[in-house]
From TrEMBL:
<dbReference type="InterPro" id="IPR010259">
    <property type="entry name" value="S8pro/Inhibitor_I9"/>
</dbReference>
<feature type="active site" description="Charge relay system">
    <location>
        <position position="247"/>
    </location>
</feature>
<dbReference type="InterPro" id="IPR015500">
    <property type="entry name" value="Peptidase_S8_subtilisin-rel"/>
</dbReference>
<feature type="active site" description="Charge relay system">
    <location>
        <position position="188"/>
    </location>
</feature>
<dbReference type="InterPro" id="IPR023827">
    <property type="entry name" value="Peptidase_S8_Asp-AS"/>
</dbReference>
<dbReference type="InterPro" id="IPR036852">
    <property type="entry name" value="Peptidase_S8/S53_dom_sf"/>
</dbReference>
<keyword id="KW-0472">Membrane</keyword>
<feature type="active site" description="Charge relay system">
    <location>
        <position position="559"/>
    </location>
</feature>
<dbReference type="Pfam" id="PF00082">
    <property type="entry name" value="Peptidase_S8"/>
</dbReference>
<dbReference type="Pfam" id="PF17766">
    <property type="entry name" value="fn3_6"/>
</dbReference>
<keyword id="KW-1133">Transmembrane helix</keyword>
<dbReference type="GO" id="GO:0004252">
    <property type="term" value="F:serine-type endopeptidase activity"/>
</dbReference>
<dbReference type="InterPro" id="IPR000209">
    <property type="entry name" value="Peptidase_S8/S53_dom"/>
</dbReference>
<keyword id="KW-0720">Serine protease</keyword>
<keyword id="KW-0812">Transmembrane</keyword>
<keyword id="KW-0378">Hydrolase</keyword>
<keyword id="KW-0645">Protease</keyword>
Amino acid sequence: MCKATGRAWPGQTSYSIPAPMTVLHYQLHVLYSIVVSLLALLSFCPSYLSLGAAQLLPIAGLNGSTSASSSQLQTYIVHLRKPAHMVSASPSELEVWHRSFLPTPSLDSGEPRMVYSYGRAISGFAAKLTPEEVDAMAAKEGFLLAHPDEPLVFETSWVPYFLRLSTADSGLWNLTNFAKTIVVAVIDSGINPSHSSFVDTYIPSPPSKWKGRCDLRSPNKCNNKIIGARNFDSAGPGAEPLDNNGHGTFVASVVGSNIVPNANVNGLAEGSAAGISAGAHLAIYRADSASGLIASFDEAIRDGADVITVSVSLPEGRFYSNDLAIAALSAAESRLFVSCAAGNGGPHRSSVRNGAPWVLTVGASTIDRALRVFLDLGNGEKFTGESLERTGQVPTQQLNLVFPGDGSNMLRTCSAPLTGVTGMAVVCQSDPASISPQEQGENVRNSMGAAMILMNSQLNGSTLILEDNVLPTVAITHDDSQRILNYVRTAGGRATVTMRAEGTIYSVSPQPTVASISGRGPSRVNGGILKPDVIGPGVNIIGASSQSSNGFVMMSGTSVSAPMLASIGAMLKVTHPAWSPAAIRSAIMTTSNHLNNARAPIVDQTGGPAGAFAIGAGHVHPLRANDPGLVYDIQPEDYIRYLCGLPGYTQREVDAVARRSVDCASEGRISAEELNYPSIAVALSGVRKTVTRTVRNEGPGRSTYMAEVEGMLAEMGVEVNPDVLNFMEEGEEQSFTVTFSIANPMEFRGQVYEGQLKWVATTSLHVVRSPLVVTVP
């Protein structure tokens, strides 16, 4: 949810005997399947018939027994290799096959073992099992691997103007009619459907392809804005998909909130608010674990969604152990564009999440809006901070300034009761890993402090993340905090401060900057593909509250930036319906900004230039993405060849990710460097390495592009061949090679070189830019 500029909303099978089976075994298998099917049908026939066989259903209870200890039971996600006779099976046939792997249909309590039977997102199911039962299951034909279910990590006004979505008639809002007709699936913590952000004024009816269902009950109803709502979390299938923590409502409003006037937080950043793709339909899938996440993907693909936004993550292991990555590959193969949060583990190296090459991985940046408070120290020095306190809430009288923490870390972070701070402004060190700003504020308030000045750590540098607090709180950068501390210490108890709230200001420079929390590359699991792909607004963004029908809150993180990029992908789906998800990602990446609003390289929280492992290709520029000139496309079979080329993967593990049996010898193998990705990252262990890329002309039919390489240091040679591309028609493809060379690799071991390859059109204004990263291992 972001600020708009006041613009008015416009009007409107059959079985065959598998080879390994004897006829007798097959007959027994079919007999068991029929019995299980009849039991299942008797158990939940009325609701199943009313929903139709195409719906993904949580499995209803069956009678049975098991001697499994309940203390050992947990939900496992089981990956299977489909036999030939199951490749085209219906959902009900798949469910029968999945049940055949279970030791018993239900537990001693009568509770069904099966949790979800998956149709598309993965090949397999989720069920309640013991470790011993999983071990026994591994001997069955078709079993690939299994792992316990795991919880999801939620990576948690002005922005449309900042992104130039609404600039005159050429803005992307106008060009795409606010992304009407597009369905964006939001997989998160649910929805507050009564919020004014989700009214359906001027929103058309759902597209005819939509097959989803709504599990909201009166007075919480679906409409033309929220066209689907399902619950796949541990609360159980009978619960409404209402938001249980505020995260999902916020994310949904960032994607597709209708225009809401007078949106603000504490009277700040006031104006009309709208989602990035304000006309899009929303399909809500509530999930809190990996098993529910897979079910959400499964249903979104089946329902007819166009785009999926995922502001959650799972531990960043190899793809065969990451169910989000597997489900997202299934979505990409079904031509759904998937945008994922890069995680909030920054600025640590290799903290990026969701690094699979078939998704757009989005980092977080700041915007050029600030909620400014001036700090005038008693020695005449002046500083600026930011606060969610509006004018009139910040004390205006001169206050004594105190830092209680020189003798104790507990006092430094205001984590313990304070003494001698009555009526003072208390300086506290921010330490969100151990104590929240709200807890710090409560400690200061309970100690009779009048205000809190929250110092950023060196890790967070200049990134000021604002949260509502119980007393007036002003956040300051790390550099400013050190100067303020020096004053407090030298003043010897006579330090004072006067605070003055200026409120909301715009066009702050330099912006954007990379948020300190934004996940950084390189990825440890994707073979060397540069991640994140891009950055987008993700700090101090306003969105809908789950606690009221009109309230707004402020959040920060890659949870915010990922749905913004999903929305941009939705708008590109309108203007370029034939583009694949890879082409959309390419258009976003190759047109992004690597310079800030001061025309200097984008910086990170330290104030120094942000490298490619922080910004990827750069900061999104939506309007340019709509007309990229050239695109780097990737076909689904290329991802399979890439999986075959990943070192250390067994046949079983490749099959689990591909969700089918893969013959890598016939499919072929390519390295991560050879995947036709819009960024180019290589490891140069010898003196030379050459990679090939292919681009497709999406600009004028007759076009000429010339190659330019910038940024590399002198010892790293880069040669592009050919260095001129001449296109005769739209849709034409041409390939080129990029050769990297270094005279003495041993001399430069451990070095990372960054630059960029630009294809500059001589026949138009297009510039197609790819980041270059060369690591000398």
